[in-house]
Amino acid sequence: MARRHKPNTPPAKQRFSGAESHKTKTPPPATKKQFTAAERSALYARREAANVLRSVLRGDAERRAVASIKSLVFSPSVRNKRATFALVCETLKHLSVIKDVLEIANVLNSKWKRQEPLVYIICYDILFGKDTPSIGDAEKFLMRRKDALLSGLATLLVRKKVKSVEQLMGVSQLNGHIKPRYVRVNTLKMDVDSAVQELEKHYTVQKDETVPDLLVLPPGSDLHAHHLVANGRIFLQGKASSMVAAALQPEVGWEVLDACSAPGNKTIHLAALMEGQGKIIACELNEERVKRLEDTIKLSGASNIEVCHGDFLGLNPKDSSFKKVRAILLDPSCSGSGTITDRLDHLLPSHADNMNYDTMRLHKLAGFQKKALAHALSFPQVERVVYSTCSIHQIENEDVVSSVLPLASSLGFELATPFPQWQRRGLPVFSGSEHLLRMDPVEDKEGFFIALFVKTNKLDNQKSSELPKREFRGRREERTMQLHPYLCPKMFRAWSNMLHRRRRRLALSTSLED
User: Fold this and answer.
1) Which of 334, 353, 350 is nearest to 391 (CA)?
2) What is the pLDDT of residues 119-143, one digit of tens each?
3) Is 19 exposed, middle or buried (0-12, 13-18, 19+ CB in 10 A)?
4) Can you give the residue ranges of the SAM-dependent MTase RsmB/NOP-type domain (predicted)?
5) Is 260 annotated as a binding residue?
6) According to the annotation, is 514 in a ligand binding site?
7) Is 123 a catalytic residue?
8) 374-394 pLDDT, tens digit each
């Protein structure tokens, strides 16, 4: 078989020369597109908003709010606070519509389904926002499917038999009340008059009539980027929240326990009232909130606060670590019904749940609140206990206080009147409710509740020396057993049965003697 001859072919570099050689050169790499500052800012805002939205939705699904929307947005880690806040709020308002549109359009693959919060944020911008997202992998993915998303929205309008998105959402706008901006001066770093002088350069400032270190600025005053906020000389704290530590009135040098302390505004207020002296034990169970608490303490400059990562109900009142505790601030988990507009909880998916859930949740919260308050009163050296909630519900407020009054009385506590000049008091559902303090959501722009227990050391022991020994012992046990059904229900029932048998024996022996 003849073999085909291949002529000697010179290498390519030898075959071409001169101008032709330039045609084979590899073109230089394309320069990377430079994004504008506005595009980069919008990209970061969408990522920060997605992180906040993820935390909010996870907490809402678990019925365990890690923090309010505002608290999460205005944390130090969020850079573009204004844009992030707007994105989170608007996305939550439109969330049900966005979810329906995504389901109809069916454009998400498994990768992007794992990043749903970011997808929700971008979809809001595409469907309802003013700026069209142009950079970012997720943005490009969804922009390529913009027509499908818009078609899905149109289909949804037809299905629901409405003509506009507003009708589709059916959002009932809450009647907003113009609320002043309250600022608490951190007297560990700055005196009140100096703060007033500095803030008056840009704002109208008044001193609050109730809380000495609280300042009042016009509604809408935005101080989140103010240098006094950034360096911890002032804190953006509402009036009701600022009244709690002031109601406790801890003395300089005392040891105080803050039972549910995160995010820490009330804790550092205690430190300021105590002039940085004494000791504050700040107890917090949630690990994420402990980090927030530590950041707040660091910003305040307080050096007398010891963080305890644990459950307040798990603390042993008789432990030597707490033998010097003189006061306890108890601001436990509550429904937040008094600050629903401030916290923006009305935007969360669970807000649309049925009333059965609300009732069950309230009873569950009240059960915990009763246990926590009874536990606070059981610390032997404590002289003052403040119980507060940001709730408007009687079951979390007056009912909780009423349930522990027998225990409080047996331990030498009685209700005192915080801020006597305050007009709005507790609901008249039991004798002594006039000592309780309430704030009204309309009149005071937020709902709040404060109860103050003060130890008087006047135990109910009248004529105790005249009682026979056996009868006195029975009375003592009877008084004790009235107090602990919330702490140890099984033990309470056992002792109650034993006490009943002793009463019968005592009555029988008395009748025989007669």
Assistant:
1) 334
2) 999 999 899 887 677 788 888 889 9
3) exposed
4) 171-456
5) yes
6) no
7) no
8) 999 999 999 999 999 999 999
